[in-house]
Write a structure and sequence with these properties.
By secondary structure, this protein is of the alpha+beta class. It is built from 18 helices and 14 strands. Helix 2 packs antiparallel against helix 3 and helix 14 crosses helix 15.
């Protein structure tokens, strides 16, 4: 196959979508209701109808894995993630799933707590990064404005019970005689700093910046900091800072739900899935034929790709930077028709826009960038507290005649392939390919695209509402890659953020890249026929 040919447009476009609606009547009503319940739970929407599309309902690539996994468990079949993108309406998806014959994979067995603790490849990678370069900070700062009043004493108790129940929050990372290991520490109660911020407009930021600058003692097993600030007039702010070794973005809703449980009903402990089970499950996967096939997929997908997407480095290193990308109001709504017509998620649109921007900026017809993926497709790990991240490499190849639509359809195939072969850790892919390395540059993913659904980070603690606070400057202090683009969704609105390392990309060039990306996204529905590469 021509390596730059577009992925064929799959079924589920306008014509097949209408056919799917007509066929839905052939599906047993009870089965349709069972599937609708799965969709409603994952998409957090009520009253989903047979003709409703995953994309027009706001479905994202990260949700797709959770949906097909939950549907597979409910109906007892193995559902390839590609099925959802090829049969995107509830009715036709249900009919297709009912026709599947392959039995679902068994759920992973529970791992006895007698099994020694072990770390995942993700944990080992970021730990080694800090050992190699002590200036690296893998901190995760979190902040919420509080509508109501949180009681400091109850909050302290809840934090202590949270730590006692979840092993990951008391896991010690020990560097002993050049051997890295993890050990389980004793339960501990995180100190809760009480901050008077009534006359300190920058006090919240000051606390977070100080928490980011101060390294964690990884061997202590105490990788959580907490503060409760009084803003005056009955207002508060809750501040947390955790190490990435113990949390990721998908864990934040879990953390909040568990904190609410302990804050609301402190005397009701329950058995929870521990992180050691996930680590053991990942290790067992490495012995499977599926894992070996996934590794070969990545070796083939990245064959001949450059390990570095060149960025215009400044003559003299500049400070790291971060800023918002100007995105128009209603951008998500304006893209619905494109998503529905071409069976693509919002992530695929954003990834295509970034790829086209990189093609135009670098003049290269072959570029790569990375994107985090959440390895939580097994239902047992859906509510696990701890980092379940992997990194997928997305490759975009075009010709002189390729259009933005060609790039979109090819990116659709790249993203689906990444989701279907994500059992292999990024570190194993790098080991297999053994690319040339440059200090400070992560092979293939030195440009990274993040998707962040901030709406999932809102919470309620016993009736007190927490609304997430986003701050650009924290991202500049925490820049790990040459260029990081983050698309955050809050209250149905998109917020774009750019962070860059000043030694690899100057502030002026970073803003030019961001402006070009924002412009392409704003006109995306009308830009599908544009050539990707600039001529002349």
């Amino acid at each position: 196959m021509d390596p730059v040919s577009s992925v064929p447009l799959s079924v589920g476009q306008e014509g097949s979508g209408r056919a799917g609606v007509r066929r839905a009547s052939a599906v047993d009503a009870g089965q349709l209701r069972r599937m609708a319940a799965v969709w409603e739970q994952v998409l957090k929407k009520d009253g989903i109808q047979p003709e409703d599309s995953f994309f027009t309902l706001g479905g994202q690539s990260l949700m797709a894995g959770a949906l097909v996994s939950a549907a597979g468990e409910r109906f007892g079949v193995r559902i390839p993630i590609r099925t959802l993108f090829e049969h995107s309406r509830l009715g036709e998806f249900t009919e297709h799933v009912l026709g599947l014959a392959a039995p679902a994979a068994p759920l992973p067995d529970a791992v006895s707590t007698d099994v020694p603790l072990e770390m995942t490849a993700f944990q080992r990678r970021i730990w080694l990064a800090e050992l190699i370069d002590p200036s690296v900070r893998n901190h995760v700062p979190l902040a919420w404005r509080v509508e109501g009043r949180l009681d400091p004493d109850r909050l302290r108790v809840a934090l202590g019970r949270l730590v006692a129940e979840h092993e990951i929050l008391r896991t010690r990372f020990v560097d002993d005689d050049d051997a890295l290991s993890v050990q389980l520490g004793e339960p501990w109660v995180p100190p809760l700093e009480l901050l008077d911020l009534r006359n300190a407009p920058n006090g919240m930021m000051d606390w977070q910046e100080a928490a980011l600058r101060r390294p964690f003692d990884l061997e202590s097993g105490q990788l959580l900091r907490a503060a409760l600030g009084d803003l005056g007039d009955g207002r508060q702010v809750l501040l947390l800072c955790l190490h990435h070794l113990v949390i990721d973005g998908e864990s934040i809703p879990v953390l909040l739900a568990e904190l609410d449980r302990h804050y609301t009903a402190p005397g009701r402990p329950r058995a929870v899935v521990q992180y050691r089970e996930f680590a053991a499950y990942q290790r067992r996967q490495r012995d499977s034929d599926a894992w070996k096939a996934d590794l070969e997929y990545w070796a083939s997908a990245l064959e001949g790709a450059s390990a570095d997407t060149p960025l215009p480095a400044p003559r003299e290193p500049e400070p790291n930077g971060a800023f918002q990308i100007p995105l128009p109001e209603g951008l998500l709504d304006s893209l619905r028709a494109v998503q529905s017509e071409h069976n693509v998620s919002w992530f695929m649109v954003a990834a295509t826009a970034l790829a086209v921007t990189l093609h135009r900026w670098t003049g290269l017809d072959d570029v790569t960038f990375g994107s985090p993926t959440a390895n939580r497709n097994q239902p047992r790990f859906a509510e696990l507290l701890g980092p379940c991240l992997n990194t997928a490499v997305l490759r975009s190849r075009v010709t002189a005649d390729s259009t933005v639509l060609d790039a979109l359809l090819r990116m659709r195939g790249e993203a689906l392939g990444a989701l279907e072969h994500q059992s292999v850790e990024f570190d194993d892919v790098i080991t297999r390919l053994n690319p040339v390395r440059r200090f400070g540059h992560t092979p293939y993913v030195n440009v990274t695209l993040n998707m962040n659904l901030l709406d999932d980070h809102a919470a309620v603690l016993d009736g007190t509402r927490l609304t997430p606070v986003l701050d650009d400057s924290l991202r500049s202090n925490n820049a790990k890659f040459g260029l990081t683009v983050t698309m955050a969704q809050r209250d149905g609105r998109l917020i774009g953020l750019v962070a860059h390392r000043g030694d690899q990309l100057g502030a002026g060039h970073a803003r030019e890249v961001a402006d070009e990306l924002a412009g392409l996204l704003a006109r995306f529905p009308k830009a599908l026929d544009e050539p990707v590469m600039r001529h002349g």
